[in-house]
Amino acid sequence: MYGLAIGSGKELWHFYRATKRVGSFAYVAKRLAKHGLDVALHGRGMLLTNGNALAARLYRTAKDSDIPVWLDSPVKRLLARDDGSVIGAIVQTPYGLRRVLTRKGVVLACGGFSHDFARRQEIYTHNASPSEHHSAASPGNVGDGIRLGEAVGARIAEGYPNAGAWAPTSLVPRKDGTKGPFPHFIDRGKPGVIAVTRSGQRFVNEANSYHDFVQGMIRACPKGEAAEAFLIADHRTIRRYGLGHVKPAPLPLKSSLESGYLIKGGTIAELARNVGIDPAGLEATIQKWNADVAKGEDSAFGKGSTAYNRFHGDAEVKPNPCLAPINNGPFYGVRVVPGDIGTFAGLRTDESSRVLDSSGEPIPGLYAAGNDMASILGGNYSGGGITLGPGMTFGFIAGRHAAGVNN
To answer: CA-to-CA distance for 254 and 404, rounded, in angstroms?
Structure first.
């Protein structure tokens, strides 16, 4: 809230245990006090973490180097010579159109096309309409860079198994009547949380990566129907870990229940009816789940069987940090749908980050980086940072190549 940034490692561990451990309570109290002081003095939190910190450092470097940064200044079109080489751009600034000529080249880095609904429908293999796919990427990522490149002969990569970095996403009601996307990164791995389709059946190892989770959800839902799933937990689990946008104790559940974000049932069957899940299917699934928990092994999908799974579990839960029974009512559910945190299918480039034309030749003076560049993993997801890392690396490569420095 108000810019509060929490790291997903040891810091988050303290927040989960703030009401159970004196050391964690002291840590969280100090952290919140510092944040409150920042908000009072600056209007927002001042501690930056993860990609937020990286972007801030890059911006500070640009400022220290007297590099001008134009805000609210979209590029209208690229300028090219008759031979096809890119030499600049027409930019719409707050002060009118400006013709900007470059000596070394133009780098396209506009964030991909997460909110370009027409291209999503064209490229994504599942229904990616605004009502059935919700991106947590910046609303400004509407594919401008890719369209600029295509206008001078560039081509977008085709045939990727996944055109985006998928994440299961819930929709959080806001006071103004709109809904905000909430990507589920870590809650699925917690003990006592399972995911089911409307049949009441599990379909995936919930503690696997968010990208894998969505692929499993799309495969599990009947063709022609909306891809969706429901995260299920009992009262003990949701009070200990929260669920999606729902916070753990001592924060109340009331607002999430009243908004309809969180669905409740006194029994498993009642929850199923309230959610719209097959009651018999859900009851059978949870009965099997609880039997597996007693043995410490998920016989259906192996939740908790890998180091990645266990990292997102709870190390204090033995023998399997990702398993806990679902038997302490009332019971709760949160609906999730496909979403993304960025796109993979960008403009085709070479090893120097130069954009390629339809014949595979570099377009002189034009580079791409970040999500405007086709993913180096060909539409696969190896782990967190697979868009941020290559974006930083190939931005560096593009700059050095344009400047004539050997890479």
So the answer is: 60
pLDDT in tens, 72-103: 999 999 999 999 999 999 999 999 999 999 99
Q: Which CATH number fits domain 108-163+344-402: 3.20.20.80, 3.10.105.10, 3.40.50.300, 3.50.50.60?
A: 3.50.50.60
Quickly state the pLDDT bin for 407 (edges 50, 70, 90).
low
**Pair of tokens at residue 142:** 């509407």
Q: What is the largest CA-CA distance in the chain?
A: 72
Q: What count of other Cβ atoms lies within 10 Å of the Cβ of residue 278?
A: 17
Phi, psi of 263 (to 5 degrees): -110, 140
User: Are the beta carbons of 195 and 230 closer than 8 angstroms?
Assistant: yes
Per residue in 22-77, pLDDT tens? Answer: 888 888 888 888 888 988 998 888 888 877 888 899 999 999 999 999 999 999 99
d(CA 25, CA 80): 60
Rg (CA), the chain: 24
Phi, psi of 221 (to 5 degrees): -90, 140
- Residues 260 and 385: their CA atoms lie apart, in Å, by 33
Q: Which two tokens stand for residue 385?
A: 């940072």
Helix (H) or strand (E) holding 120: helix 117-123
The residue among 13, 7, 17 whose CA lies nearest residue 384 is: 7
252, amino acid identity: P
Residue 106: pLDDT band (50, 70, 90) is very high
pLDDT at 205 over 90: yes
- Return the CATH architecture of domain 165-340: Alpha-Beta Complex (3.90)
64 membership: H or E segment, kind and range: helix 50-64
The DSSP 8-state label assigned to residue 213 in this structure reads H
Q: Give the pairing type, strands 164-173 and 331-343.
A: antiparallel
What does the block give as tokens for 213? 């989770």
Residues 6+ apart with CB under 8 A from 31: 11, 14
Q: How far apart (Å, rounded) are the C-alpha atoms in residues 236 and 380?
A: 36
Identify the helix (H) or strand (E) that includes residue 293: helix 279-295
